[in-house]
Amino acid sequence: MRSKAYEVHEECGVIGVVRADGPAAELVHRGLFALQHRGQEAAGIVTWGPTKELHHLKGRGLVSECLPVYQVKALAGSVAIGHVRYSTVTMDRSENIQPFLATTPYGKFAIGHNGNLKNTDALRSRLEAAGSLLSTTMDTELIVHLLARSGAKSFVDALARAAGESLGAYSLVMICEGVLYALRDPHGIRPLVLGELKAGWVVASETCALDALGATYVRDLGPGELLTIENNRLTSRQLLPVGRPAPCVFELVYFSRPDSRVFGQGVHGARTRMGERLAMQDLALGTPMPDVIVPVPDSGFPAAVGYARQSGVALEKAIIRSHYVGRTFILPDQDSRSHSIRLKLSVIREAVCDKRVLLIDDSIVRGNTSREIVAMVRSAGAREVGMRIASPPLAWPCYLGIDTPDRDELVINQHRDEEGVRRFIGCDSLRYLTIDGLAEATGRQPFCMGCMNGDYPL
Amino acid sequence: MRSKAYEVHEECGVIGVVRADGPAAELVHRGLFALQHRGQEAAGIVTWGPTKELHHLKGRGLVSECLPVYQVKALAGSVAIGHVRYSTVTMDRSENIQPFLATTPYGKFAIGHNGNLKNTDALRSRLEAAGSLLSTTMDTELIVHLLARSGAKSFVDALARAAGESLGAYSLVMICEGVLYALRDPHGIRPLVLGELKAGWVVASETCALDALGATYVRDLGPGELLTIENNRLTSRQLLPVGRPAPCVFELVYFSRPDSRVFGQGVHGARTRMGERLAMQDLALGTPMPDVIVPVPDSGFPAAVGYARQSGVALEKAIIRSHYVGRTFILPDQDSRSHSIRLKLSVIREAVCDKRVLLIDDSIVRGNTSREIVAMVRSAGAREVGMRIASPPLAWPCYLGIDTPDRDELVINQHRDEEGVRRFIGCDSLRYLTIDGLAEATGRQPFCMGCMNGDYPL
Amino acid sequence: MRSKAYEVHEECGVIGVVRADGPAAELVHRGLFALQHRGQEAAGIVTWGPTKELHHLKGRGLVSECLPVYQVKALAGSVAIGHVRYSTVTMDRSENIQPFLATTPYGKFAIGHNGNLKNTDALRSRLEAAGSLLSTTMDTELIVHLLARSGAKSFVDALARAAGESLGAYSLVMICEGVLYALRDPHGIRPLVLGELKAGWVVASETCALDALGATYVRDLGPGELLTIENNRLTSRQLLPVGRPAPCVFELVYFSRPDSRVFGQGVHGARTRMGERLAMQDLALGTPMPDVIVPVPDSGFPAAVGYARQSGVALEKAIIRSHYVGRTFILPDQDSRSHSIRLKLSVIREAVCDKRVLLIDDSIVRGNTSREIVAMVRSAGAREVGMRIASPPLAWPCYLGIDTPDRDELVINQHRDEEGVRRFIGCDSLRYLTIDGLAEATGRQPFCMGCMNGDYPL
Amino acid sequence: MRSKAYEVHEECGVIGVVRADGPAAELVHRGLFALQHRGQEAAGIVTWGPTKELHHLKGRGLVSECLPVYQVKALAGSVAIGHVRYSTVTMDRSENIQPFLATTPYGKFAIGHNGNLKNTDALRSRLEAAGSLLSTTMDTELIVHLLARSGAKSFVDALARAAGESLGAYSLVMICEGVLYALRDPHGIRPLVLGELKAGWVVASETCALDALGATYVRDLGPGELLTIENNRLTSRQLLPVGRPAPCVFELVYFSRPDSRVFGQGVHGARTRMGERLAMQDLALGTPMPDVIVPVPDSGFPAAVGYARQSGVALEKAIIRSHYVGRTFILPDQDSRSHSIRLKLSVIREAVCDKRVLLIDDSIVRGNTSREIVAMVRSAGAREVGMRIASPPLAWPCYLGIDTPDRDELVINQHRDEEGVRRFIGCDSLRYLTIDGLAEATGRQPFCMGCMNGDYPL
After folding, report:
1. Residue D386 clears pLDDT 90, i.e. is over it
2. CA distances for D221 relative to C157, D173, D182, D190, D260, angstroms
3. Residue B448 β-bridge partners
4. Closest CB from C69, C324, C347 relative to D40
5. D316: β partners
6. What is the pLDDT of residues A262-290, one digit of tens each?
């Protein structure tokens, strides 16, 4: 279920639009709605207006709350970038809402960033010692200071120097004096795609934002590639040498929207195949089949369909989710967590009663939600409750743009192994998709699976 | 999809709790969360406290917004009633939020009401001429004035007289001087069920509220039956003569929650059977089967599962719904309606592309949403788009507790017949479930199908 | 100082306007600004519109906060009434904001009330037993129920009956089916004046509201007099027999605005004369004169000018008041009261240092503020600090429209006599104006001085 | 009247506290209340806590609104600075609320600034070209960038360099790594005073803040003087060479609070003497004396008392000001300005009717308010209305910390001379205090009178 959003967070989503036939801000706005799942805490839009100035609109909360249409319409200009953000650490400071604006030696500049740097502490100390004043706690600002102080002759050279010093994951959209730039880090860790409008271009974190704008998908940006769009003319250059390719597999497992294509494949299809692989694992081991397959809402659905299809077992939407329990609703009780899950989810008794039920979810982080769901299904009369997870155990933290809990809070580390997790969750059987199964389902590309195997590109 | 909630509204949901082992307000609160789908505009709780006074908490918005836990905890007392409300007409007046409180000749009194009266104008004129001051625009207040002025010796006699003069649909929960009363109108139009707690009783609009409290379902209240719970002791009497039985079939088709039992049957099962009947209709007519069955979120799901199961065709969750577009978000554009549906719903291209798609929905009101969805599926590459509706056309208004649009705004009346609607919706084929099919799916009980056939119990 | 407003509260101010040359609501609005000192907790306006309906606008807070101009402009109609309100007891209920509206047997009705009834409990019980539903906790509603149930043939007869049963203080402005009515109780306790507009009439609590509208003062309404303004034609009748005359002297001492005329005399002049009488008392007793007269802001000013003029001693505005400490600002400290006075008031050291200072205030309620001020003046270096109060001690509660503290919280009762109060206040000398002095200053009219001598008209 | 605050604004007020016997934030908070008249748009407090970190609390609006006591109490530390701010230009950006925080090569740093620089544009361009990122639009930030990039070895050297490059008015309070610094510009344009606490020190814009804290006034800081308070030990050094002395005379005329001492003299006394000088001017010219002296609230009061005392004419507080018309209340009408003054001010008819009235005000900016007041007094029946202004005409803008309107909006420039202003204001006679009279009243010190004579220190 998406409430995993409270446990594992994508840091951000970005979008940039250049168009010849109207204001760009409205398209960016529509794209941010489509990218909302990548960040729900804040959002912002910056445009380059006809008066050769940057205009911005930023706020806290959902796009629908903090970027009102009438204010978006007031943002003149045919070049715009936008950003949605999640961050636990820094949200007390409104300065941290992106895009970040600055006047640099290369002119008026704005930047939106998806990802995380690894060497922030070193960069921060170095810059402060040199007399730079940092006004936010964001990685992104560090890149801008490096750029502003680079001493390089041109903006692109300055960007190359700044990016060269910034180790980590970044997909950037930028405006500098009216030119749109988009850059992906040398490992291609976070997605960034290019789309074509009737009279313009769009770059965005996921293709679902392209669809929202009626744009045609052109291609993914390559690792280290810089796109430049000036006067609606697109040019590309390899700004940075390509590193070890490491697209984040968790984008396919959980983060990206099911209707997006990322890293060259459809997310829905990948997830359905993960479910099929799960079923193959069970069938190969001769595991007895259940009476009914039940997806854990909402993210377990494609895998459940895949499992059901592969196994021939009937699927039932036996767990429903209330739309009325707000994101921010918190029960202050002792046992609030349990209550709040029970307020959000309900089990349809007649669909599970007296049946052997197999729950399908995409992943488990801390395990508390799973544990609660198993108990609910059981008390609705299920005779047996199994669980299958359509990805390998999450055993390591992510330093590259996903806000995971500490290592020792992850359920697999807390309870040692699959059997320990099963006991904690309280189900009758539990099985994860293997790393190999995941690789099969995702086409054996060279992914970063750092959160599953501890092997990071940096 | 639930956005039908903007087109057809259930007026209300009610709950009443008496318990011997703790404060009742918290249980009512939890029950109101479960009944939230029956009214999202306002909510309220009234308790009878140890000081022999009524305490109340009311507000506008969702239960999670307007009834904060810490304030609910402050409502002392082992007897409580609660109410959730939707009303387009009267929401500018905060007095209209229920439960309604009054001091009557029979003591301190509070009432929550689900339903609508037919003879409100006559009652209102009569009362005002006699010097009663009406302080709200609610039907409910009329019942209370009738009761207060009845001249009857006892509260129950007064209630019988007041109810006798009130024609229409009502499921009432009331507190009078610490005694809980629950009454269902003589036709049994709106649901009302009784459940048993470990140490107490609960009456509620639907069983999903019982489940939320861990209560055991005992039975439905009968038409015209009055339950009295005094000092945790339950008694029943037939307060009013039983009328022509007329439970609202739309509760099964759309309103009630899929995990509830209403009028003696499971809602999920009924809806799944409606889908099976739909498939049988198609199969009987030799209609060619599609490549994929796609439910319209969220309410089309059980029928889609039923259709898929009966037909053997694969189901895909190919339309996804954003959780981030708030209930209240409104785009002020010319073509806002279309945009706002496109912000809420997305079609997974790879799941429908080049396929013959059959969409399943539970009902159509004005048809605009359906029209938009068909267009979206088509532009995602579907080769053919059919639609099946798991209930008969809505052709008449409801006067008994559902807030439907005017007759001539209903799509079937605007476009004359199934073929007219099909052309308006823009799909390649359209078929509704027949009245007979609906009767089969719901067990051939004597339902009110007034909105479908114009035949009302009053 | 006006912060006495936190200790002694006028319940309300009322205004009614009929005009032939434009909308009445804007004039009522402007009048309510002028009457704001009579009630700061809530305000409301009701108009009779061209569609023969009542329109209303009400809210909590100051007129400037709760009655926005653009909404006032939307209130059509040439007849309007308005109300400002203070009430400690009942402000949790928004229903209590006046004017109160009702549909009566005599038609659509609205009422604004200044004053308090004495027999509310008896009236309330009688009405509830007879089946009336009370929707507020206001005295005013009782009058309306009595009126609605009177059975009288005409509205005026009904009003006479209802008023006849209502004992206490009331100045009423009413609209019934487009006719404006104004009624003053038989004792004439609260003020009510009539003014003439260029093309219309206005009735209001004080003449300052007339000035705000550019209206000409015509006369005070008489005790028991009913004014009727229909189609801009004024008629008068003696609705109720005249009782013992008892205008509230505290209106002159503190409540009414200094630029108003009430009960036939200018408030500023009366207060200045109270100060002169105070000086005469001191001079007659041979009391040594101080170096400087210092008014306690803001209400002590006219008396201080009177004292200074009579005694020939120089006046200094040596205590200044901050405009930036909001009405609602509350310090949660132990010693908050002291702090909050010190935040509001400051003493100008150079104006009092080494001087014998005589502070002049209009009255003392609990004495805490006075005590604090004396200490402040002393610590600013004053050699001697005396205090004179321009009215007799407040020793009794008011039941007729002023919200005083309990008898035993009044400083004169807590500390027995003038000497006790002096010790509590901490000043070197203290003297109150005598009852006789007050009578001299106010022209020896037959006032209600119940709060000073315990002698009430009822 | 203080509503001049809408025409001429002091930019800021500052305060810094070091104490050994408790948290400093609460004292700063109390001091900011006392300095509120110097800035009402925003406020902030920064403390240096025991964990060797800066804590801050900032917000928009009045101190009572934006710095709640319970949050102030949470600011640990014995060293604190505070700031109140007014600024028309930049308030859309919350980053502009002071104190401004930064991490510099010299450690964690916070600064509050009263005044304005002249060479901002040059500094800004230079810094941006060198790669500094400016995050606010405040002069203050420029000083900090200069400091951070100075390359100096010590903080004090860096401060000297930065201040040396910053031309204009500044009174600064700063914290750097737990040490409090206070610096006044070489011309001593804005006030800054030192006070002693029982166990600590306080620096503040005015002595009224010292009084609010119970601190003893020690002395004014000298031009170019730097105070350092480390571990509660005070040291002083002449950081910058003393320039031409130029304390702002308008602090005495209007800005500073009457109970403050600034530039070595009491404000109340200075204003009273300005009134006396005004009377002397009239008497010397044989001008016929009026019947009554009436101060324009609130700031005309001390001068009116001075005039009355010198002339022997009676003073009447005949214009009263409503406390209920909020700062932010704006009437959207055509003639709103006139209306809004009439809502705020009222004339007591009986105090001016048939009299020759002389109004006393401290200064005139645009003249609209004066014009309105004259009309009000006239229509209250005054036989003659004269006006005296207790300072010379404002004919030039201020570049050094006061936000005046453009030159051509000043009434003296719009209407050429005293006679032109008199005709515009509509009074029967008008006279300003002469520059020489002002010099006499203020003790013939070398003030900056730039706004009156165009002669600025820079």
Report:
1. yes
2. 78, 12, 9, 10, 15
3. B248
4. C324
5. none
6. 999 999 999 999 999 999 999 999 999 99
Determine the Cα–Cα distance for residues D55 and D71; give it in Å rounded to an integer. 11
So what's the pLDDT on residue C401?
83
Tell me how close the Cα of B379 comes to any Cα of chain A, in angstroms. 10
The alpha carbon torsion through D317, D323, D324, D326 (nearest 10 deg) reads 120
Convert the pLDDT of each residue in B71-81 to its tens digit.
999 999 999 99
- Amino acid identity, residue A280? M
Q: Contact, C295 vs C304, CB < 8 A?
A: yes
Does residue D299 contact residue D2 with C-beta atoms inside 8 Å? yes
* Residue C14 reports pLDDT greater than 70: yes
Predicted structure pTM score: 0.86
- Which chains does chain D touch, 3 or more C-beta pairs < 8 A? A, C
Q: What are phi and psi of B262, to 5 degrees?
A: -130, 145
| CB-closest option in B94, B129, B133 to C144 | B133
Q: Whole-angstrom Cα distance, residue B232 to residue B216? A: 16
Please return the burial class of A407, using the count of CB atoms within 10 Å of its CB with bins 0-12, 13-18 and 19+.
middle
Confidence class for position B323, pLDDT limits 50, 70, 90: confident
Q: Are A31 and A212 contacting, i.e. CB atoms less than 8 angstroms apart?
A: yes
Burial group, residue D205, by CB count within 10 angstroms (0-12, 13-18, 19+): buried
Q: CA separation (Å) from C257 to B136, C34, C209?
A: 37, 9, 10
Show the tokens assigned to C314.
């120089």
d(C-alpha C237, C-alpha C224), whole Å: 9
Q: Between A and D, how many residue pairs show a Cβ–Cβ distance under 8 A? A: 59
B59 falls in which pLDDT band (50, 70, 90)?
A: very high
Alpha helices by DSSP H, listed for B56-170, are 63-66, 69-73, 120-129, 139-148, 155-165
Chain C residues closer than 8 Å to B104 by CB: 128, 131, 133
What pLDDT is recorded for position A66?
92
Residues from C contacting B (CB-CB < 8 Å) are: 94-95, 102-105, 128-135, 141, 144-145, 148-151
CA triple B49-B54-B59, angle to 5 deg: 115
The tokens describing B50, both together, are 């140890």
Task: Count CB neighbours of A368 within 10 A.
Answer: 16
- What is the total residue count of chain A? 458
Are A135 and D133 in contact (CB < 8 Å)?
Answer: yes
Q: Phi then psi for D258, rounded to 5 degrees? A: -60, -25
ipTM of the assembly? 0.90
**What domains sit in chain D, N to C, each tagged with a CATH number?**
9-243 (3.60.20.10), 266-453 (3.40.50.2020)
pLDDT at D11: 72
Q: Do B13 and B89 contact (CB within 8 A), yes or no?
A: no
Nearest to A295 by CA among A319, A275, A279: A319
- Average pLDDT of the residues of chain C: 92
Q: Which of A296, A382, A348 is nearest to B269 (CA)?
A: A348
Give the amino acid at A317. Answer: K
Cα–Cα distance measured from residue B44 to residue B84, given in angstroms and rounded to the nearest whole number: 7
Q: Do D69 and C320 touch (CB under 8 A)?
A: no
**C416-438 pLDDT tens trace:** 999 999 999 999 999 999 999 99
Mutate: best of C98, C123, C133, C147, partner B, most B CBs <10 A: C133
Of B134-148, C169-183, C397-411, D360-374, least confident by mean pLDDT is: C397-411
The three-state secondary structure class of B156 is helix
Distance separating alpha carbons of residues B319 and B316, to the nearest angstrom: 8
Mean pLDDT of D61-88: 91
CA D443 to chain centre: 20
Q: Which amino acid, one-letter code, is at B252?
A: L
Per-residue confidence (pLDDT) for residue B87, from 0 to 100: 62
